[in-house]
Amino acid sequence: MNNEVVLRMENIDKRFLGVHALKKCSLTLRRGEVNALAGENGAGKSTLMKILTGIYQRDEGEIIYNGKSVVFKNPRDAQEAGIAIVHQELNLMNHLTAAQNIFIGRESEGFFLNDRVINQKTEELFKELKLNIKPTELVGNLSVGKQQMIEIAKAISFKSNILILDEPTAALTEAETKELFRIMDELKSKGVSMVYISHRMDEIFKITDRITVMRDGEFIKELKTKETNMDEVIKAMVGRNVTSKKKEKSNVKKDAEVVLEVNGLVSKDVNNVSFDLKKGEILGFAGLMGAGRTETARLLFGADPKHGGTIKVNGKEVSIKSTTDAVKAGIGYLSEDRKRFGLATGLSVAENAVLANLENFTKSIIVDDEKIKNSTNEYIEKIKIKTPSIDQLIKNLSGGNQQKVIIAKWLIKDADILIFDEPTRGIDVGAKSEIYNLMNELVADGKSIIMISSELPEILRMSDRVAVMCEGRLTKVLDIKDADQEVIMKYATER
After folding, report:
1. Which bin fits 66, alpha (ψ -120 to 50), beta or left (φ > 0)?
2. Bridge-based pairing state of the strands 465-470 and 282-286
3. Which of 68, 241, 413, 425 has CB 3.0 to 4.6 Å from 356, enough for a Cys bridge?
4. Do 295 and 472 meet the contact criterion of CB atoms below 8 Å apart?
5. Is 393 exposed, middle or buried (0-12, 13-18, 19+ CB in 10 A)?
6. By percentage, how much of the chain surpasses pLDDT 70?
7. Pick from 310, 283, 311: nearest CA to 453
8. What angle do CA 165, 119, 108 make, to 5 degrees?
């Protein structure tokens, strides 16, 4: 890395339908460095990068690239100038080969119609990046990690000087993440500059040289990674201190009533699981990938068929054969995949909020719009959902606010038992803190929560008890005072 500035974005302003998304925002990128773009969901990171790559046009401000003021009218302009972006959502065609995916749409360069040429070019590219992928391999047969590498190789094939990586490790294994970092180091040594967008603080401190912090569409500060620490970055991101201390003792009374009793739950992925959940309790479920935690949750919610076992709610056995049965029993479920199973992305905030409880907002076949409006606004205020209006399409909200709308949906339904499966996945530290506060408020109000999380600090911070699973079995239930990462991992690997 050197101090030569290759890119300067100065005083960038952008509005969307009255929303001031970027306010005099700035970014500086030096040759051969990795600059982390850090900020909460909705801070403006993606908007700024979309302006840089020609997807959006700025309202005000200037982009200076290699010493010259530039305007990119579309992504092709930016690409041809040597600026490429690898989006979080991969954009590859599974039925085409790795080589075909890299060179598709480049017929004018004389590549696409000649498989021999593009295979050779791809092989050279993979060799340069030290990638162990065959150019002729169908993309659909590759792991997500290798597909990610192909996206990066594609970006590099345009002779990119600047590479933007948006949440590149979101779906990668630890080994694939290491491989990505190796490639990034390789690119740095060749003078490629990178903007790295991630919510994973440990990665930011591992791979970056500088950190640019944004908040509410504004530039806050630029920090040298080696000269700062996680607490300082997080505070700059959220404008306040965010604690991640372990819960020392349970807040639940010993004689608290049992609201959920599960005995001998069995399915193809779950083996004789038994536990109980108390009123006002957060019961954390920990375990490694494939331990059976989500599978257990889906059985409780009637999303998958159970082969055996009983479920009691408030002391009475209930038959849960469908999600409708679970909802009737007072159980709400926040899926780990909120876009597929939690949201109707084409609907508004209000429509999503009342989705589980429509019968209470209709008379005969007439929808009571005023009642929907009042109820949605009540919960927007109550749980601090940031949205321009209740009519806003939910897909336009940040991940943290989408998650809050799903929670609002179950509160409007008045579910007493809430299953939160990876409730903070894909959301930033500030939004995480808000979700945690909301969960604590819910249990204080008498709700009971089952929380599944792959993040042990989250489990230790939030849980009153920790249920540990391994290969479909529940191996131990720990009181929070007896739980730490070492103990949890011991039972998570107990075969």
Report:
1. left
2. parallel
3. 413
4. yes
5. middle
6. 94
7. 283
8. 75
Q: What are phi and psi of 405, to 5 degrees?
A: -65, -40
Please report where in the chains the tokens 């949906």 appear, as a residue.
Answer: 409
Structure tokens at 226: 């080696």
CA 323, 328, 333, 338 torsion: positive or negative? positive
Q: How would DSSP label each residue in 369-395?
A: HHHHHHHHHHHHHHTT---S-TTSBGG
For residue 65, the SS3 value is strand
The stretches of 70-136 forming alpha helices (DSSP H) are: 75-80, 98-103, 115-129
How distant, in Å, are the alpha carbons of 10, 133, 152, 462 from that of 124?
37, 11, 14, 50
| Pairing of β 34-38 and β 60-65 | unpaired
Q: How far is CA 333 from CA 198, 263, 390, 398, 450, in A?
A: 27, 20, 22, 20, 9
Rounded Cα gap, residues 439 and 203, in angstroms? 27
Read off the amino acid at residue 151. E
Q: What are phi and psi of 147, to 5 degrees?
A: -60, -40
* CA–CA separation, 90 and 373 (whole Å): 37
Q: Please state, in angstroms and rounded to a whole number, the distance separating the CA atoms of residues 424 and 458.
A: 9
Terminal-residue alpha carbon distance, the chain:
48
CA dihedral (256, 283, 414, 374) positive or negative: positive
**Residue closest to 88 by CA, chosen among 57, 50, 40:** 50
Domains and CATH numbers, the chain: 5-238 (3.40.50.300), 258-492 (3.40.50.300)
For residue 374, CA distances in Å to 11, 40, 47, 378, 495 come to: 39, 29, 32, 6, 52
Close Cβ partners of 410 (under 8 Å, ≥ 6 residues apart): 332, 333, 334, 356, 418
Q: What is the DSSP string of 272-297?
A: SEEEEEETT-EEEEE--TTSSHHHHH
From the number of C-beta atoms within 10 Å of its C-beta (0-12, 13-18, 19+), residue 25 rates as buried
All residues at 6 or more sequence positions from 364 whose CB lies less than 8 Å from its CB, including other chains? none
Q: Which residues of the chain have pLDDT under 70?
A: 1-2, 18, 41, 107-113, 171, 240-244, 338-341, 426, 495
Strands 331-334 and 417-421: parallel
CB count within 10 Å of CB 435 equals 22
How do residues 385-428 score in pLDDT, each as one tens digit? 888 888 888 888 877 788 888 888 888 888 899 999 888 876 77
Give the whole-angstrom CA distance, residue 77 versus residue 71.
Answer: 9
